[in-house]
Amino acid sequence: MTQYPEGYRAEPAGLSDEMRVRREKLFRLQDEGRDPYQITKFQRDRYSREIKENYDALENRTVRVAGRIMAKRVQGKAGFMDLMDDQGRIQLYVSINELGAETMAQVKTWDVGDLIGVEGFVFKTRTEAISVHVQKIELLSKSLRPLPEKFHGLTDTDQRYRRRYVDLIMNSEVKDTFYKRSMILKEIRAFLDERGFLEVDTPILTPFEIGASARPFFTHHNTLDMDMVLRIETELYLKRLIVGGMERVYEVGRIFRNEGMDTKHNPEFTTIELYQAYTDFHGIMDLVEDMMKRVAQAVCGSLVVPYQGHEIDLGHWERLTMAEAVKKYAGVDFADWKTDEDAVAAAKEHHVELPEQKTKGAILAEFFDAFVEEKLIQPTFIYDYPVEISPLAKRKPEDPAFTERFEYFINATEFGNAFTELNDPIDQRLRFEAQVAARRAVDPDCKAQVDYDYVEALEYGMPPTGGLGFGVDRLVMLLTDSASIRDVLLFPTMKPVE
Hints:
- It is a single chain.
- The chain has 16 helices and 19 strands.
- The chain has helices at 17-31, 48-53, 55-58, 96-99, 101-109, 157-162, 164-170, 172-194, 235-243, 281-300, 322-330, 340-349, 360-372, 425-442, 452-459, 472-480, and strands at 62-75, 78-85, 88-95, 115-124, 130-141, 198-199, 205-206, 218-221, 226-230, 248-256, 268-277, 304-307, 310-313, 318-321, 380-386, 395-396, 399-410, 413-420, 465-471.
- Strands 6, 10, 11, 14, 15, 16, 17, 18 and 19 form a nine-stranded mixed β-sheet that branches. A five-stranded mixed barrel has the order 1-2-3-5-4. Strands 7-9-8 form a three-stranded antiparallel β-sheet, with no helix packed on it.
């Protein structure tokens, strides 16, 4: 029997009548030497789905299954229970003739939510329900809290996110979402591995805040007596590896940003960044299209997937420059802007917010935000971004006002960002310094620094390289038709309960 401290049977505050009864059942079992918490294992050899899918081969054969009681209809000398395991549910038939009067009496006291182990033979009832005729049964763990009510279940979204363990028990589609998340990551890894990419790990704790606009979380290293930063990206370490001769690398990385939360943002989230030497952003664009088709087909069985009322066709991708997209959806031609003043006048005419940098490129990006993004429902690559909003991308040789960068959009949401990477160390240093100066001008107390070690790495020479970063969580949202990022994170960040 478990060795609890003196007075452990005193009732905690706030117990419901049902919880009180369940505790009393546990204490009775312990007094009788039947403490379920003392059981260390159960040797299971079959799962519910396996039995159902292979009934012909398993009929009348003995199986051992284990799981949670989800329904119980036991009266008199026989009855049925529903057992849920990792793969689904299966019906159990229990009878006093098989189990004996003492065991049957124990079974009648068990509750929905209790975990049991069963041995019996596979058969079909008169209603053709595939079942297990129980010959031996054992209580493996006692559930001291009742599950949510059968028909309404756990429906409050706040409670579902806070008590994901109950959500997974009660809502099978939730478990399916997270199985699909695992499948998505597995397929992406397989796709990249087959193309010669190497999965690597880079530091989560970094020595200082970089100049990027994302706000980081800070912590302190006691031994070194130094403040450290939780990473906001994996990019700069991965590109150091490209310099070092690891020509195709990727990382599935947890990222931390001390910013707001909404249906598309959580303070910690998962990204995949990859870098390939000797290619450019057009090569990465082809890779993205191939990867998305592969993953959708493997996970959803189709290239056309439903998402929030739209049918998204991942088999067809449109490709537009940012200027072409603005002309298509806003009717404004970037080629007509001969000077920055022309761009300012166009912005005022179309009631577009002016950026801090009142240049043609920065204003083009504002037009895109105002008129284009919400129209991009079907998969679309937008490329050739203004240099003002692309500090890490290589300039286009034929037009240095733009960079070799693309983002791809689905359902009016940005899903990924890619560059032909900047490998000019002098240009990179100047852009970093400008970026940090801009941050400090907005927030004089910020601790952002230039990553001169990365600049030094570039001085050893980085080959022409294409790079990509995309959010895993948004991709899972798309392929599971989930409206919120919290639906695809097992334990999303929540405000503490008062």
